[in-house]
Amino acid sequence: MSLSIQLPDNLEQQLSVYCQEHHLSINETIRLAVERLLTTNPPLSPYELGKDGFGADQSHEGDIAQHSKKLLKAR
Length: 75
Hints:
Order of helices and strands: HHHH
Oligomer: single chain
Distance between the termini: 60 Å
């Protein structure tokens, strides 16, 4: 199947740099990206994408918003 797409200049430049750095053709890179997009069943929610970073700073106790000034002074 032949397909033609138009990309903004900045995206086209990023794609070109990515392909050079990873030694891939533009066609192969776009095919891999589309496959990855379509095979994510179901697409991850924003929570699922960020859950590993939530609470990553465990240096506090309790509600950080309630005690932010106290925590900043302690540091």
